[in-house]
Design a protein that fits this description.
The chain is α+β, with helices and mostly antiparallel strands. It has 14 helices and 34 strands. It is 32% helix and 30% strand.
Length: 572
Protein backbone atom coordinates (compact mmCIF):
# COMPACT_ATOMS: atom_id res chain seq x y z
CA UNK A 1 0.00 0.00 0.00
CA UNK A 2 2.78 2.42 0.84
CA UNK A 3 4.47 1.60 -2.41
CA UNK A 4 1.38 2.50 -4.42
CA UNK A 5 0.93 5.75 -2.51
CA UNK A 6 4.55 6.70 -3.14
CA UNK A 7 4.23 6.01 -6.85
CA UNK A 8 1.02 8.04 -7.04
CA UNK A 9 2.68 10.93 -5.20
CA UNK A 10 5.73 10.83 -7.52
CA UNK A 11 3.45 10.74 -10.50
CA UNK A 12 1.51 13.71 -9.22
CA UNK A 13 4.68 15.68 -8.52
CA UNK A 14 5.97 14.88 -11.99
CA UNK A 15 2.74 16.08 -13.57
CA UNK A 16 2.86 19.26 -11.48
CA UNK A 17 6.45 19.94 -12.59
CA UNK A 18 5.51 19.41 -16.23
CA UNK A 19 2.53 21.78 -15.87
CA UNK A 20 4.77 24.36 -14.23
CA UNK A 21 7.36 24.06 -17.05
CA UNK A 22 4.62 24.34 -19.66
CA UNK A 23 3.25 27.39 -17.91
CA UNK A 24 6.74 28.94 -17.76
CA UNK A 25 7.35 28.15 -21.47
CA UNK A 26 3.99 29.70 -22.37
CA UNK A 27 4.78 32.83 -20.40
CA UNK A 28 8.26 33.04 -22.01
CA UNK A 29 6.78 32.62 -25.49
CA UNK A 30 4.22 35.28 -24.83
CA UNK A 31 6.95 37.60 -23.55
CA UNK A 32 9.12 36.99 -26.62
CA UNK A 33 6.12 37.48 -28.90
CA UNK A 34 5.35 40.80 -27.18
CA UNK A 35 9.01 41.86 -27.51
CA UNK A 36 9.09 40.87 -31.21
CA UNK A 37 5.85 42.74 -31.83
CA UNK A 38 7.31 45.76 -30.06
CA UNK A 39 10.49 45.57 -32.17
CA UNK A 40 8.44 45.30 -35.35
CA UNK A 41 6.34 48.30 -34.31
CA UNK A 42 9.53 50.25 -33.60
CA UNK A 43 11.04 49.20 -36.95
CA UNK A 44 7.89 50.23 -38.80
CA UNK A 45 7.85 53.55 -36.99
CA UNK A 46 11.56 54.06 -37.72
CA UNK A 47 11.00 53.26 -41.43
CA UNK A 48 8.09 55.68 -41.54
CA UNK A 49 10.22 58.36 -39.89
CA UNK A 50 13.06 57.65 -42.36
CA UNK A 51 10.67 57.89 -45.30
CA UNK A 52 9.29 61.15 -44.00
CA UNK A 53 12.85 62.47 -43.58
CA UNK A 54 13.84 61.23 -47.06
CA UNK A 55 10.78 62.90 -48.54
CA UNK A 56 11.64 66.13 -46.78
CA UNK A 57 15.30 65.88 -47.90
CA UNK A 58 14.23 65.03 -51.47
CA UNK A 59 11.94 68.05 -51.50
CA UNK A 60 14.75 70.20 -50.16
CA UNK A 61 17.12 68.85 -52.79
CA UNK A 62 14.53 69.40 -55.50
CA UNK A 63 13.99 72.95 -54.30
CA UNK A 64 17.73 73.50 -54.11
CA UNK A 65 18.24 71.97 -57.57
CA UNK A 66 15.48 74.13 -58.95
CA UNK A 67 17.07 77.17 -57.39
CA UNK A 68 20.47 76.17 -58.79
CA UNK A 69 18.95 75.56 -62.21
CA UNK A 70 17.25 78.92 -62.12
CA UNK A 71 20.50 80.51 -61.04
CA UNK A 72 22.53 78.64 -63.66
CA UNK A 73 19.95 79.43 -66.32
CA UNK A 74 19.54 83.02 -65.14
CA UNK A 75 15.81 82.62 -64.67
CA UNK A 76 15.31 79.90 -67.33
CA UNK A 77 14.92 76.32 -66.21
CA UNK A 78 14.89 73.20 -68.33
CA UNK A 79 15.73 69.76 -67.01
CA UNK A 80 14.88 66.67 -69.02
CA UNK A 81 15.93 63.01 -68.78
CA UNK A 82 16.22 61.71 -72.34
CA UNK A 83 17.48 58.66 -74.19
CA UNK A 84 20.67 59.40 -76.20
CA UNK A 85 20.74 58.72 -79.94
CA UNK A 86 24.03 59.22 -81.84
CA UNK A 87 24.07 61.12 -85.13
CA UNK A 88 27.02 61.90 -87.44
CA UNK A 89 28.17 65.48 -87.39
CA UNK A 90 30.99 67.80 -86.33
CA UNK A 91 31.22 69.91 -83.21
CA UNK A 92 29.29 69.67 -79.95
CA UNK A 93 25.76 70.79 -80.87
CA UNK A 94 22.96 68.41 -79.88
CA UNK A 95 19.45 67.84 -81.23
CA UNK A 96 16.53 68.28 -78.80
CA UNK A 97 12.82 67.37 -79.17
CA UNK A 98 10.32 70.10 -80.19
CA UNK A 99 8.78 70.18 -76.70
CA UNK A 100 12.05 71.63 -75.38
CA UNK A 101 11.77 74.43 -77.93
CA UNK A 102 8.30 75.28 -76.65
CA UNK A 103 9.38 75.20 -73.00
CA UNK A 104 12.44 77.37 -73.63
CA UNK A 105 10.50 79.78 -75.83
CA UNK A 106 7.83 80.26 -73.16
CA UNK A 107 10.56 81.26 -70.69
CA UNK A 108 12.23 83.70 -73.09
CA UNK A 109 15.46 81.70 -73.40
CA UNK A 110 15.94 82.73 -77.03
CA UNK A 111 16.20 86.38 -75.99
CA UNK A 112 19.18 85.64 -73.75
CA UNK A 113 21.61 84.72 -76.54
CA UNK A 114 23.20 81.35 -77.38
CA UNK A 115 21.86 78.39 -75.42
CA UNK A 116 24.09 75.94 -73.57
CA UNK A 117 23.24 72.68 -71.84
CA UNK A 118 24.84 70.53 -69.17
CA UNK A 119 24.65 66.85 -70.05
CA UNK A 120 25.15 64.13 -67.44
CA UNK A 121 24.61 60.38 -67.38
CA UNK A 122 21.94 59.57 -64.76
CA UNK A 123 21.38 55.92 -65.71
CA UNK A 124 23.89 53.75 -67.55
CA UNK A 125 22.94 50.14 -68.45
CA UNK A 126 20.53 50.05 -65.54
CA UNK A 127 23.02 51.51 -63.03
CA UNK A 128 22.66 54.97 -61.59
CA UNK A 129 25.66 57.20 -62.26
CA UNK A 130 24.83 59.40 -59.31
CA UNK A 131 26.50 57.08 -56.83
CA UNK A 132 29.25 55.76 -59.04
CA UNK A 133 30.49 59.20 -60.02
CA UNK A 134 29.61 61.08 -56.89
CA UNK A 135 32.04 63.91 -56.36
CA UNK A 136 33.59 63.48 -59.83
CA UNK A 137 33.24 65.97 -62.68
CA UNK A 138 35.17 63.88 -65.15
CA UNK A 139 32.99 60.88 -66.06
CA UNK A 140 29.55 61.26 -67.60
CA UNK A 141 29.39 65.08 -67.59
CA UNK A 142 29.94 67.54 -70.46
CA UNK A 143 28.43 70.67 -72.00
CA UNK A 144 27.10 71.47 -75.45
CA UNK A 145 25.17 73.87 -77.63
CA UNK A 146 22.02 73.09 -79.59
CA UNK A 147 21.81 72.51 -83.33
CA UNK A 148 18.07 72.10 -83.86
CA UNK A 149 14.86 70.91 -82.19
CA UNK A 150 13.99 68.00 -84.48
CA UNK A 151 14.73 64.94 -82.31
CA UNK A 152 12.00 62.48 -81.47
CA UNK A 153 10.24 63.08 -78.17
CA UNK A 154 12.06 61.40 -75.32
CA UNK A 155 15.40 61.34 -77.15
CA UNK A 156 18.42 63.63 -77.58
CA UNK A 157 20.72 63.49 -80.63
CA UNK A 158 24.42 63.48 -79.72
CA UNK A 159 27.28 64.12 -82.20
CA UNK A 160 30.42 61.94 -81.90
CA UNK A 161 32.32 64.55 -79.83
CA UNK A 162 29.62 64.69 -77.14
CA UNK A 163 28.96 60.95 -77.28
CA UNK A 164 32.62 60.00 -76.79
CA UNK A 165 33.04 62.39 -73.85
CA UNK A 166 29.78 61.33 -72.22
CA UNK A 167 29.48 57.59 -72.75
CA UNK A 168 32.47 55.18 -72.56
CA UNK A 169 33.46 53.83 -75.97
CA UNK A 170 33.45 50.20 -74.82
CA UNK A 171 29.84 50.32 -73.64
CA UNK A 172 26.62 50.24 -75.61
CA UNK A 173 23.85 52.77 -75.12
CA UNK A 174 21.35 50.14 -73.96
CA UNK A 175 19.50 51.52 -70.95
CA UNK A 176 21.51 54.77 -70.87
CA UNK A 177 19.64 57.95 -69.89
CA UNK A 178 20.98 61.49 -70.15
CA UNK A 179 19.91 64.47 -68.05
CA UNK A 180 19.88 67.67 -70.10
CA UNK A 181 19.88 70.94 -68.14
CA UNK A 182 19.80 74.48 -69.51
CA UNK A 183 22.70 76.56 -68.18
CA UNK A 184 24.46 79.84 -68.88
CA UNK A 185 28.23 79.74 -69.41
CA UNK A 186 30.81 82.54 -69.22
CA UNK A 187 32.89 83.37 -72.27
CA UNK A 188 36.27 81.66 -72.21
CA UNK A 189 39.46 83.70 -71.98
CA UNK A 190 42.14 81.00 -71.61
CA UNK A 191 42.57 77.32 -72.51
CA UNK A 192 45.46 74.91 -71.97
CA UNK A 193 45.43 71.88 -74.27
CA UNK A 194 47.65 68.81 -74.49
CA UNK A 195 47.83 66.54 -77.57
CA UNK A 196 47.52 62.84 -76.85
CA UNK A 197 50.30 62.05 -79.33
CA UNK A 198 53.31 63.83 -80.77
CA UNK A 199 53.06 65.43 -84.20
CA UNK A 200 50.34 68.03 -83.70
CA UNK A 201 52.85 70.90 -83.62
CA UNK A 202 54.20 69.71 -87.02
CA UNK A 203 50.96 70.80 -88.68
CA UNK A 204 51.52 74.03 -90.64
CA UNK A 205 49.99 76.86 -88.63
CA UNK A 206 48.54 74.33 -86.18
CA UNK A 207 46.83 77.02 -84.09
CA UNK A 208 44.86 78.12 -87.16
CA UNK A 209 43.88 74.48 -87.73
CA UNK A 210 42.73 74.30 -84.10
CA UNK A 211 40.80 77.55 -84.47
CA UNK A 212 39.01 76.17 -87.54
CA UNK A 213 38.04 73.07 -85.58
CA UNK A 214 36.79 75.09 -82.59
CA UNK A 215 34.48 77.09 -84.83
CA UNK A 216 32.25 74.02 -84.87
CA UNK A 217 32.01 74.04 -81.07
CA UNK A 218 29.89 76.11 -78.73
CA UNK A 219 31.49 75.05 -75.43
CA UNK A 220 34.63 73.62 -73.87
CA UNK A 221 34.83 71.69 -70.61
CA UNK A 222 37.84 70.66 -68.55
CA UNK A 223 39.03 67.05 -68.88
CA UNK A 224 37.16 66.43 -72.11
CA UNK A 225 38.86 65.49 -75.38
CA UNK A 226 38.47 67.46 -78.60
CA UNK A 227 39.26 66.03 -82.04
CA UNK A 228 41.13 68.08 -84.64
CA UNK A 229 41.20 66.82 -88.23
CA UNK A 230 43.71 67.89 -90.86
CA UNK A 231 42.99 66.09 -94.11
CA UNK A 232 43.29 62.38 -93.33
CA UNK A 233 45.11 63.03 -90.04
CA UNK A 234 43.31 63.04 -86.71
CA UNK A 235 44.69 64.50 -83.49
CA UNK A 236 43.04 64.33 -80.07
CA UNK A 237 43.71 67.02 -77.46
CA UNK A 238 42.98 66.97 -73.72
CA UNK A 239 41.48 70.11 -72.22
CA UNK A 240 43.64 70.59 -69.13
CA UNK A 241 42.62 74.04 -67.91
CA UNK A 242 40.03 76.69 -68.70
CA UNK A 243 39.42 80.22 -67.44
CA UNK A 244 37.34 81.80 -65.97
CA UNK A 245 35.43 78.55 -65.21
CA UNK A 246 35.74 74.81 -65.72
CA UNK A 247 33.21 75.04 -68.57
CA UNK A 248 33.12 78.02 -70.90
CA UNK A 249 31.56 79.31 -74.08
CA UNK A 250 33.76 79.64 -77.17
CA UNK A 251 31.27 81.64 -79.23
CA UNK A 252 32.12 85.22 -80.16
CA UNK A 253 35.16 85.41 -77.90
CA UNK A 254 38.95 85.55 -78.16
CA UNK A 255 40.64 82.75 -76.20
CA UNK A 256 44.34 82.59 -75.37
CA UNK A 257 45.42 79.02 -76.12
CA UNK A 258 48.50 77.27 -74.72
CA UNK A 259 49.45 73.91 -76.25
CA UNK A 260 51.76 71.92 -74.02
CA UNK A 261 53.84 68.90 -75.02
CA UNK A 262 52.20 65.59 -75.83
CA UNK A 263 51.27 63.16 -73.08
CA UNK A 264 54.47 61.38 -72.02
CA UNK A 265 52.53 58.18 -71.47
CA UNK A 266 51.61 58.01 -75.15
CA UNK A 267 54.83 58.87 -76.94
CA UNK A 268 54.44 55.70 -79.00
CA UNK A 269 52.50 57.41 -81.74
CA UNK A 270 50.19 55.77 -84.25
CA UNK A 271 50.67 58.58 -86.75
CA UNK A 272 53.74 59.89 -88.54
CA UNK A 273 56.11 62.41 -86.97
CA UNK A 274 58.40 64.80 -88.86
CA UNK A 275 62.00 64.56 -87.67
CA UNK A 276 64.17 67.67 -88.24
CA UNK A 277 66.81 67.44 -91.01
CA UNK A 278 69.57 70.07 -91.02
CA UNK A 279 71.61 71.18 -94.01
CA UNK A 280 75.08 69.68 -94.04
CA UNK A 281 74.15 66.70 -91.84
CA UNK A 282 73.42 63.02 -92.45
CA UNK A 283 70.72 61.04 -90.67
CA UNK A 284 70.58 57.25 -90.46
CA UNK A 285 67.54 55.10 -89.95
CA UNK A 286 65.62 51.93 -90.62
CA UNK A 287 62.38 51.61 -92.58
CA UNK A 288 60.17 48.56 -92.89
CA UNK A 289 58.70 47.44 -96.20
CA UNK A 290 55.50 49.35 -96.97
CA UNK A 291 56.14 51.99 -94.27
CA UNK A 292 57.34 55.60 -94.32
CA UNK A 293 59.87 57.56 -92.26
CA UNK A 294 59.50 61.32 -92.46
CA UNK A 295 61.82 64.30 -92.04
CA UNK A 296 61.40 68.04 -92.50
CA UNK A 297 63.64 70.94 -93.44
CA UNK A 298 63.12 74.66 -93.95
CA UNK A 299 64.22 77.03 -96.70
CA UNK A 300 64.70 80.43 -95.11
CA UNK A 301 64.61 83.72 -96.99
CA UNK A 302 68.40 84.13 -97.16
CA UNK A 303 68.83 80.58 -98.50
CA UNK A 304 66.08 81.10 -101.03
CA UNK A 305 67.77 84.32 -102.22
CA UNK A 306 70.92 82.30 -102.90
CA UNK A 307 68.96 79.64 -104.80
CA UNK A 308 66.90 82.18 -106.76
CA UNK A 309 70.09 83.95 -107.89
CA UNK A 310 71.34 80.53 -109.15
CA UNK A 311 74.26 80.57 -106.75
CA UNK A 312 73.26 77.26 -105.18
CA UNK A 313 71.00 74.24 -105.34
CA UNK A 314 69.47 71.91 -102.76
CA UNK A 315 70.85 68.38 -102.99
CA UNK A 316 69.07 65.51 -101.26
CA UNK A 317 70.80 62.12 -101.25
CA UNK A 318 69.46 58.78 -100.07
CA UNK A 319 71.76 55.79 -99.86
CA UNK A 320 70.73 52.31 -98.71
CA UNK A 321 73.07 49.57 -97.51
CA UNK A 322 73.89 47.05 -100.22
CA UNK A 323 72.77 44.09 -98.15
CA UNK A 324 69.43 45.65 -97.17
CA UNK A 325 66.26 46.31 -99.16
CA UNK A 326 65.29 49.14 -101.51
CA UNK A 327 63.80 52.54 -100.76
CA UNK A 328 62.09 55.44 -102.55
CA UNK A 329 62.46 59.17 -101.90
CA UNK A 330 59.59 61.67 -101.93
CA UNK A 331 59.56 65.42 -101.13
CA UNK A 332 56.62 67.79 -100.70
CA UNK A 333 56.06 71.35 -99.58
CA UNK A 334 53.70 72.22 -96.74
CA UNK A 335 50.74 72.18 -96.32
CA UNK A 336 51.23 68.63 -97.69
CA UNK A 337 52.78 67.19 -94.54
CA UNK A 338 53.39 63.57 -95.42
CA UNK A 339 54.35 62.84 -99.06
CA UNK A 340 53.41 59.41 -100.36
CA UNK A 341 53.83 57.40 -103.57
CA UNK A 342 50.95 59.22 -105.24
CA UNK A 343 50.98 62.57 -103.41
CA UNK A 344 54.24 64.51 -103.64
CA UNK A 345 56.09 67.19 -105.60
CA UNK A 346 59.47 65.54 -106.24
CA UNK A 347 60.42 61.87 -106.22
CA UNK A 348 63.21 59.42 -107.01
CA UNK A 349 62.42 55.75 -107.57
CA UNK A 350 65.80 54.57 -108.83
CA UNK A 351 67.20 51.25 -107.67
CA UNK A 352 70.06 51.79 -105.22
CA UNK A 353 71.30 55.27 -104.34
CA UNK A 354 69.02 58.21 -105.07
CA UNK A 355 69.56 61.95 -105.44
CA UNK A 356 67.25 64.91 -105.99
CA UNK A 357 68.49 68.36 -107.06
CA UNK A 358 66.10 71.26 -106.37
CA UNK A 359 66.96 74.51 -108.13
CA UNK A 360 65.42 77.85 -109.00
CA UNK A 361 64.02 76.27 -112.19
CA UNK A 362 61.50 74.34 -110.09
CA UNK A 363 58.40 76.53 -109.94
CA UNK A 364 57.18 74.82 -106.77
CA UNK A 365 60.38 75.67 -104.88
CA UNK A 366 60.36 78.68 -102.59
CA UNK A 367 60.70 79.76 -98.96
CA UNK A 368 58.87 77.48 -96.56
CA UNK A 369 58.92 74.10 -94.88
CA UNK A 370 59.37 70.85 -96.76
CA UNK A 371 58.71 67.23 -95.84
CA UNK A 372 60.88 64.29 -96.89
CA UNK A 373 59.35 60.81 -97.06
CA UNK A 374 61.50 57.67 -97.20
CA UNK A 375 59.43 54.69 -98.31
CA UNK A 376 60.43 51.09 -97.73
CA UNK A 377 59.85 49.62 -101.17
CA UNK A 378 61.31 46.17 -100.61
CA UNK A 379 62.47 44.48 -97.42
CA UNK A 380 63.78 46.08 -94.27
CA UNK A 381 66.13 48.86 -95.38
CA UNK A 382 68.92 50.63 -93.52
CA UNK A 383 69.56 54.04 -95.05
CA UNK A 384 71.47 57.32 -94.76
CA UNK A 385 69.82 60.54 -95.90
CA UNK A 386 71.75 63.80 -96.32
CA UNK A 387 70.85 67.37 -97.16
CA UNK A 388 73.33 69.87 -98.58
CA UNK A 389 73.68 73.05 -100.65
CA UNK A 390 75.55 72.80 -103.94
CA UNK A 391 77.64 75.85 -104.76
CA UNK A 392 77.24 76.83 -108.43
CA UNK A 393 79.99 79.49 -108.53
CA UNK A 394 82.85 77.16 -109.51
CA UNK A 395 80.60 75.24 -111.87
CA UNK A 396 79.79 78.42 -113.84
CA UNK A 397 83.50 79.23 -114.23
CA UNK A 398 84.18 75.70 -115.48
CA UNK A 399 81.29 75.89 -117.96
CA UNK A 400 82.62 79.14 -119.44
CA UNK A 401 86.07 77.58 -119.89
CA UNK A 402 84.65 74.45 -121.57
CA UNK A 403 82.47 76.44 -123.91
CA UNK A 404 85.42 78.58 -125.00
CA UNK A 405 87.52 75.50 -125.75
CA UNK A 406 84.74 73.76 -127.67
CA UNK A 407 84.11 76.87 -129.70
CA UNK A 408 87.72 76.80 -130.87
CA UNK A 409 87.52 73.16 -132.05
CA UNK A 410 85.46 73.65 -135.19
CA UNK A 411 87.31 71.15 -137.44
CA UNK A 412 85.18 68.10 -136.54
CA UNK A 413 83.01 65.49 -138.25
CA UNK A 414 79.95 63.65 -136.86
CA UNK A 415 80.41 59.92 -136.37
CA UNK A 416 77.81 57.93 -138.39
CA UNK A 417 77.40 55.40 -135.55
CA UNK A 418 77.36 57.31 -132.26
CA UNK A 419 76.56 60.78 -133.70
CA UNK A 420 79.36 62.41 -131.69
CA UNK A 421 81.56 65.11 -133.24
CA UNK A 422 85.07 63.79 -133.72
CA UNK A 423 88.16 65.64 -135.05
CA UNK A 424 88.39 65.04 -138.79
CA UNK A 425 91.97 63.77 -138.59
CA UNK A 426 90.89 60.75 -136.47
CA UNK A 427 87.35 60.12 -137.72
CA UNK A 428 88.22 56.98 -139.71
CA UNK A 429 89.95 55.33 -136.76
CA UNK A 430 87.10 56.29 -134.44
CA UNK A 431 84.34 54.93 -136.70
CA UNK A 432 86.16 51.61 -137.12
CA UNK A 433 86.44 51.21 -133.34
CA UNK A 434 82.97 52.58 -132.65
CA UNK A 435 81.14 50.22 -135.04
CA UNK A 436 82.74 47.18 -133.37
CA UNK A 437 82.14 48.17 -129.73
CA UNK A 438 79.12 50.52 -129.67
CA UNK A 439 75.52 50.19 -130.81
CA UNK A 440 72.74 52.76 -131.00
CA UNK A 441 69.39 51.94 -129.38
CA UNK A 442 66.89 51.43 -132.24
CA UNK A 443 63.89 52.52 -130.16
CA UNK A 444 62.21 55.58 -131.75
CA UNK A 445 63.30 58.76 -130.03
CA UNK A 446 65.98 57.10 -127.89
CA UNK A 447 69.29 57.07 -129.83
CA UNK A 448 71.37 56.21 -126.73
CA UNK A 449 74.84 54.87 -127.56
CA UNK A 450 75.58 51.67 -125.62
CA UNK A 451 78.45 49.28 -125.28
CA UNK A 452 77.69 45.99 -127.04
CA UNK A 453 77.74 44.04 -123.76
CA UNK A 454 75.34 46.57 -122.16
CA UNK A 455 72.81 46.63 -125.00
CA UNK A 456 71.02 43.46 -123.88
CA UNK A 457 70.16 45.06 -120.51
CA UNK A 458 68.85 48.27 -122.11
CA UNK A 459 65.07 47.97 -122.55
CA UNK A 460 62.10 50.32 -122.95
CA UNK A 461 58.76 50.28 -121.14
CA UNK A 462 55.93 49.20 -123.46
CA UNK A 463 53.52 51.66 -121.82
CA UNK A 464 55.47 54.90 -121.46
CA UNK A 465 58.53 54.24 -123.64
CA UNK A 466 61.09 55.15 -120.98
CA UNK A 467 64.48 53.45 -121.06
CA UNK A 468 65.67 51.39 -118.10
CA UNK A 469 68.15 48.79 -117.07
CA UNK A 470 66.51 45.40 -117.20
CA UNK A 471 66.81 44.99 -113.42
CA UNK A 472 64.85 48.24 -112.90
CA UNK A 473 61.90 47.38 -115.14
CA UNK A 474 59.99 45.35 -112.54
CA UNK A 475 60.08 48.22 -110.04
CA UNK A 476 59.15 50.72 -112.76
CA UNK A 477 56.02 48.75 -113.66
CA UNK A 478 54.96 48.53 -110.01
CA UNK A 479 55.67 52.17 -109.14
CA UNK A 480 54.48 53.93 -112.30
CA UNK A 481 51.87 51.67 -113.89
CA UNK A 482 50.04 49.88 -111.08
CA UNK A 483 46.63 51.53 -110.50
CA UNK A 484 46.45 53.64 -107.33
CA UNK A 485 43.23 54.32 -105.42
CA UNK A 486 42.70 57.91 -104.25
CA UNK A 487 40.74 58.55 -101.06
CA UNK A 488 38.14 60.38 -103.17
CA UNK A 489 37.47 57.18 -105.19
CA UNK A 490 39.49 57.90 -108.35
CA UNK A 491 41.80 55.15 -109.68
CA UNK A 492 44.81 56.33 -111.74
CA UNK A 493 48.43 55.51 -112.48
CA UNK A 494 51.16 57.29 -110.52
CA UNK A 495 51.91 60.33 -112.70
CA UNK A 496 48.24 61.03 -113.34
CA UNK A 497 47.51 60.50 -109.66
CA UNK A 498 50.18 63.04 -108.66
CA UNK A 499 48.55 65.63 -110.93
CA UNK A 500 45.11 64.70 -109.61
CA UNK A 501 46.21 65.04 -105.99
CA UNK A 502 47.84 68.41 -106.61
CA UNK A 503 45.09 70.10 -108.61
CA UNK A 504 41.83 68.12 -108.89
CA UNK A 505 41.26 65.98 -105.78
CA UNK A 506 38.46 67.43 -103.61
CA UNK A 507 40.23 66.13 -100.49
CA UNK A 508 43.55 67.90 -101.13
CA UNK A 509 44.62 70.44 -98.53
CA UNK A 510 44.86 74.09 -99.57
CA UNK A 511 45.45 77.40 -97.78
CA UNK A 512 42.33 79.51 -98.26
CA UNK A 513 43.26 82.87 -99.76
CA UNK A 514 40.44 84.57 -97.81
CA UNK A 515 40.46 83.10 -94.28
CA UNK A 516 44.04 81.75 -94.23
CA UNK A 517 42.96 78.37 -92.84
CA UNK A 518 44.30 75.08 -94.20
CA UNK A 519 41.19 73.23 -95.39
CA UNK A 520 40.06 70.65 -97.90
CA UNK A 521 39.59 72.17 -101.34
CA UNK A 522 36.30 70.45 -102.11
CA UNK A 523 34.79 70.03 -105.57
CA UNK A 524 34.56 72.68 -108.27
CA UNK A 525 32.45 75.72 -107.31
CA UNK A 526 28.97 76.02 -108.80
CA UNK A 527 29.54 79.58 -109.98
CA UNK A 528 31.24 79.64 -113.41
CA UNK A 529 32.95 82.94 -112.54
CA UNK A 530 34.54 81.34 -109.48
CA UNK A 531 35.83 78.47 -111.61
CA UNK A 532 37.37 80.98 -114.03
CA UNK A 533 39.05 82.70 -111.04
CA UNK A 534 40.56 79.35 -110.05
CA UNK A 535 38.71 79.22 -106.73
CA UNK A 536 38.04 75.98 -104.91
CA UNK A 537 34.66 75.08 -103.44
CA UNK A 538 35.72 76.26 -99.99
CA UNK A 539 37.18 79.51 -101.35
CA UNK A 540 33.99 80.15 -103.33
CA UNK A 541 31.92 79.90 -100.16
CA UNK A 542 34.44 81.61 -97.87
CA UNK A 543 34.98 84.44 -100.39
CA UNK A 544 31.25 85.19 -100.40
CA UNK A 545 31.62 86.88 -97.04
CA UNK A 546 31.57 90.67 -97.20
CA UNK A 547 34.05 93.16 -95.79
CA UNK A 548 34.18 96.96 -95.96
CA UNK A 549 36.36 98.42 -98.70
CA UNK A 550 39.39 100.25 -97.32
CA UNK A 551 38.86 103.11 -99.75
CA UNK A 552 35.10 103.73 -99.80
CA UNK A 553 33.74 101.66 -96.92
CA UNK A 554 31.24 99.84 -99.12
CA UNK A 555 30.56 96.19 -98.22
CA UNK A 556 32.06 94.02 -100.94
CA UNK A 557 32.43 90.25 -101.21
CA UNK A 558 36.00 89.18 -100.50
CA UNK A 559 36.33 87.30 -103.79
CA UNK A 560 35.31 90.44 -105.71
CA UNK A 561 37.40 92.91 -103.73
CA UNK A 562 40.23 92.99 -106.31
CA UNK A 563 37.75 93.66 -109.14
CA UNK A 564 36.12 96.39 -107.05
CA UNK A 565 39.50 98.04 -106.40
CA UNK A 566 40.29 98.06 -110.13
CA UNK A 567 36.85 99.03 -111.46
CA UNK A 568 35.89 101.63 -108.86
CA UNK A 569 39.18 102.96 -107.50
CA UNK A 570 41.44 102.33 -110.54
CA UNK A 571 43.99 100.47 -108.43
CA UNK A 572 46.18 97.90 -110.12
Amino acid sequence: MDFELRRAREKLEKEQRERKQQAKGKIERERKAKEEAARQREAIEAEKRARRLDAVEAQLRADQQMAENLLAGQGVMLSRILEPVPYPGPGDKIKLPPSCFTELSDQGAFDKGPMYFRLSVVLHNGTSEGNANKGSDKDGVTHSGVLEFTAEEGTVGLPPHVWNNLVPLDDSNTGTLIEVQYVRLPKGTYAKLQPQEAGFSDLPNHKAVLETSLRQHATLSQREIITVRYGELTHKLHVLELKPASSVSVLETDIEVDIVGSDSASDTVNQHVLKPLVFGTTESGLVEEGNYVYYKFSVEDDLWHKIASEEGKIEMKLEADKDSGDTDLYISKHPLLFPTRHQHMWSSNDVGSKALILSANDQSLGPGTYSVGIYGYKGKSSYQVSLAIQDNTEQKVGQRAISSVSAMDVDSVQCRNCRHHIPSRSIALHEAFCSRHNVVCPHPGCGVVLRVEEAKNHIHCDKCGRAFHQAEMEKHMVVFHEPIHCSCGVVLEKEEMVKHQSSDCPMRMITCRFCGDVVQAGTSPLDVRDRLRGLSEHESICGSRTAPCDSCGRSVMLKEMDIHQIAVHQKS
